[in-house]
Structures are given as C-alpha cells and as structure tokens.
C-alpha cells in the first residue's frame, strides 16, 4: 500500500490518496478519513482480496484492527497448529487461538467502515505496482473434500525436499474445505505442492481443487526507509512481513492504522515532509521492527539445517520453543536437545544468536 499526501487540494482532488485496498490500505483510508482528511482509496481490482493467502490470523489481530469477530468474515476458529518434521514421524503441538478469514469479505467489511468515515472508494482503477526483490513464491489451492485430523488445527510441514526454504500449509476452513499451499524460494512450487497432495491420500484422495492462485511475498525484511516527502509505504510494499512464516495480515493492519493516523495529523498541520511522516515508521518499528529482524535471522538460520537435523530438533522442541525461534530467540525448554545432541544444540544457539 502507498499513501500519498497531496499538498494542494482543489475540490476535485484529495488530501490523501491510498493506493491498494489490502489490509494496510483499508486501515489507512479509514484512519485518515476519520481524522478529517479528504481521502480516496484506489484499487486496481474490482473485488480485492483474491491474492493467494492462507488467510490465517492470531486472535489479537482483530483488536488491533478495532473490529469484533464476526461470521461475516470468519470462516473458522483455530485453537493451535501441528508442525510436522520433514519425515513426518514427529509433530509438535503449538498452542494459540486464531481465525481463518474469508479475506475478501474481511477487506470488504473494513473498506465499508472507511467509506462510512468519509473515504471515497475507487476500485477497478489501474495503478502501477511497486517491485521488491527477495520474495517467497506462494502457491495456494482452495480445496474441498479434505479429510483432516482436526479442523481446529493448522498443519505446517517443513523440509528441504518438500518446500526448499519454506513450508507447506493446510489451513482448514471447516466442512472439509481448506486452503492448501506452499511457500518457497525459487521455482517448482506447483510441482512440489502437487507431489505433497498426491503423497497424502488420507487427506486428499477425495479432495478437489476449486481455485488456484500464485503470488510473490517479500521476506527480505523491512526496507531501510519507507517514508519520503508526501509518501508512506505500508504492508508488502514496505517489507512488513514476518520472514519466517510469510505472515503479513496482522502487521499490515497495524501499519496501515498508524500510517492513516499520521497522514490525518499531517493534513491538519499542513506538513507533508518526510520528517513529519517519519513518525509512522518510528511507531511501527517500535512494535514490529525487532520481531521482523529476528524472524529474518531465524529464516536464514533454518535454511542451514539439513532435514536430518530438523527431524532431530522436532523430536526435542516444544510448541513454545518453536514460537520463540520464529521470533529469533533461542529455545528455552529444549534440555533434551542439549543433553542428547550437544553439537546440534550449539549449532542452533550459534545460528540464532549470531549478529
């Protein structure tokens, strides 16, 4: 998402132009309009939200978006996740409450809120995309007829043979429907995902692919600078994605919310300089900067472990250890790993604690 602030506003122009009606865009348009700025939300898609996405969020994302859970946009409620070792002989139960969204409905709900606050919606309008290197390629299938062990649990599969520098996900939406996808660096996403599905007949022998989408997601960390005179970048455009997981809905909601507030304040003051708008970058970094940086370090570390080492680690780590490692922290409870595999434990600690 790009928020552009216009210095001169004749009757047919706007104080704030928000480009892109993703999670950050709909939040920015709402907050800017709420503060009294004449705001337009521009989106090239007529029905946004179709970009490939596992559609999962943690429960705390909705309070940050200042919206209550609703069946209008929630497809399923989640109580945690199973993470499987590369050989699938071990799984770790990771606790955590969350939701699987109907993302197009979620964005529609948020855009209507922005419109009620005074923002003008301009969908189906051609815009130029902002490119970014170092991306994870996501391929996702919307599938029906899946037979899953527990439809309240996400399933994550790791391993270099299954998903090089990435993972396979199964995010259940209920009643046999699920988002099944893969995120990898490099080519062959479809071949790898199709092979995974074919090699798991218990879950997918009667399943059907209803829809297929692919898209790149930036996992190289935040841009050094994503604020300039009259402009702020949010979401994917600013690299505000958790690198290890590729998750970006929650961070984008928060980024857009802050950017919209800062834009509205800038309009009131008549100051659109980068020094004024930098408040947005500072506020976001204080909340997520270290998290994103540490997660990038964890991603780069995990790429150095072989599937055999990941099999061993999965056998000794607990759910909280995995959560900690996703945040770039050393596992706190993996005593067994240190006792039985000290060399591997030292490698884990070195990879996660190195500069």
Give a structural overview.
The protein is 37% helix and 25% strand. It is α+β, with helices and mostly antiparallel strands and 355 residues long. It folds into three domains: 1-51 and 102-131 and 221-294, FAD/NAD(P)-binding domain (3-Layer(bba) Sandwich); 77-101 and 135-218, D-Amino Acid Oxidase, Chain A, domain 2 (2-Layer Sandwich); 304-353, no CATH class. An eight-stranded mixed β-sheet has the order 4-6-5-9-10-11-8-12. Strands 7-3-2-1-14-13 form a six-stranded mixed β-sheet, with helices on one face. A hairpin with a 6-residue loop joins β5 and β6 (91-101).
Q: Main beta sheet: strand number and arrangement?
A: 8 strands, mixed
In CATH terms, the superfamily of the largest domain is FAD/NAD(P)-binding domain
Structural class: alpha+beta
**Corresponding CATH architecture of the largest domain:** 3-Layer(bba) Sandwich
Q: State which percent range the strand residues make up.
A: 25-35%
Question: What's the structural blueprint in terms of helices and strands?
Answer:
Blueprint: E1 2-5, E2 16-19, H1 23-34, E3 39-43, E4 56-58, H2 61-64, E5 74-84, E6 91-101, H3 103-116, E7 120-123, E8 135-144, E9 153-157, E10 167-174, E11 177-184, H4 189-198, H5 201-204, E12 208-218, E13 227-228, E14 231-233, H6 249-269, H7 274-302, H8 307-316, H9 319-326, H10 335-340, H11 342-353
Parallel strand pairs: 2-3, 3-7, 5-9
Antiparallel strand pairs: 1-2, 1-14, 4-6, 5-6, 8-11, 8-12, 9-10, 10-11, 13-14
Helix pairs in contact: 1-3, 1-6, 6-7
């Amino acid at each position: 998402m790009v928020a552009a602030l216009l210095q001169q506003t004749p009757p047919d122009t706007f104080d704030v132009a928000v480009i892109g009606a993703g999670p950050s865009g709909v939040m920015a348009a709402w907050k800017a309009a709420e503060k009294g700025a004449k705001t337009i939300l521009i989106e090239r898609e007529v029905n946004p939200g179709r970009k490939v996405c596992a559609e999962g969020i943690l429960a705390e994302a909705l309070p940050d978006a200042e919206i209550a859970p609703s069946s209008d946009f929630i497809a399923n409620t989640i109580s945690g996740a199973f993470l499987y070792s590369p050989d699938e002989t071990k799984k770790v139960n990771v606790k955590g409450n969350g939701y699987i969204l109907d993302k197009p409905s979620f964005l529609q709900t948020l855009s209507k809120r922005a419109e009620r606050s005074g923002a003008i919606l301009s969908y189906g309008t051609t815009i130029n995309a902002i490119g970014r290197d170092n991306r994870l390629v996501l391929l996702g299938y919307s599938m029906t007829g899946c037979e899953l062990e527990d439809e309240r649990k996400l399933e994550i599969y790791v391993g270099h043979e299954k998903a090089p520098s990435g993972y396979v996900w199964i995010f259940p939406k209920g009643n046999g429907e699920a988002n099944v996808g893969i995120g990898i660096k490099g080519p062959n996403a479809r071949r790898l995902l199709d092979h995974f599905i074919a090699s798991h007949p218990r879950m997918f022998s009667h399943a059907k692919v209803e829809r297929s989408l692919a898209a790149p997601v930036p996992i190289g960390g935040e841009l050094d600078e994503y604020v300039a005179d009259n402009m702020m970048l949010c979401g994917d455009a600013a690299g505000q994605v958790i690198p290890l997981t590729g998750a970006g809905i929650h961070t984008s909601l928060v980024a857009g919310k802050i950017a919209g507030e800062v834009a509205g304040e800038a309009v009131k003051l008549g100051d659109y300089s980068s020094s004024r708008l930098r408040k947005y970058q500072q506020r976001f970094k204080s909340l997520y900067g270290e998290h994103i940086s540490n997660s990038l370090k964890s991603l780069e570390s995990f790429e150095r472990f072989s599937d055999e080492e990941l099999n061993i680690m999965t056998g000794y780590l607990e759910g909280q250890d995995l959560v900690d490692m996703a945040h770039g922290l050393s596992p706190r409870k993996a005593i067994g790993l240190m006792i039985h595999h000290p060399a591997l434990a030292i490698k884990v600690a070195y990879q996660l604690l190195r500069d």
